[in-house]
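Write out structure tokens for Band 7 domain-containing protein.
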Amino acid sequence: MNSEGVSMTESKRRERQSGPGRYNSHDVEALEDADSGIGLCGWLLVGFSLLLMLVTLPISIWMCIKIVKEYERAIIFRLGRILKGGAKGPGLFFILPCTDNFINVDMRTITFDIPPQEVLTKDSVTVSVDGVVYYRVQNATLAVANITNADSATRLLAQTTLRNVLGTKNLAEILSDREEIAHNMQSTLDDATDDWGIKVERVEIKDVKLPLQLQRAMAAEAEASREARAKVIAAEGEMNASRALKEASLVISESPSALQLRYLQTLNTIAAEKNSTIIFPLPMDILHSLKRH
């Protein structure tokens, strides 16, 4: 097969992939080059429209001059083809009656909520997740020529992407890695909407709702974990206290007078707390010392 046959095969393959009348971001110039494709009849109609406008001046001037706001762009169609030069605006632009019409495209950032989606996670847990998407039209020509309703298509694609991305994560990853999930969604949506002339600027996961039974199970698990930590802390405290008592007993055992002073301090403390008769055992060495005197 020669090079000409290879190139024809390649062009047919690309046509099957993209479809008729579909363009990517690299074909905008070809899409906007419409003057050479309207034909002789088209030029006759354009000339007749121009003549009609001149005859009906100055009334027709109000039909031919249009205004585009700062945040808008106008795509002009002449006999069904996009006019050469691409999007017009902001400001004034001129159209011919009967042969031209135009579509305004809003270039501001648009925000929409992703409705709560029931998602089955990787570890077979059903959760309800919603989010918010920020996008804007980056190329007005592609947004008009390649997609019927760019806003509706982006909304549906965001819902599908949310389910697909979360389906590859387990519950722990969904709860802890929201920023990574949002970044993956933003990259996927941006790649998919590039041929629509749309730029997805930001995606955020708003809320993750768990089933009621799972919430109770997680709460019981967290409570059991806290109780276990409390028991460990109490055991460590008792162990430290026992070590301190052991060290104190060794110190007191070396000095009998220290033990007697400890007895007296304990008696004083008990007597101050309750007004009652208390029988307190005394060490034998104290009694022996009293007998001697």
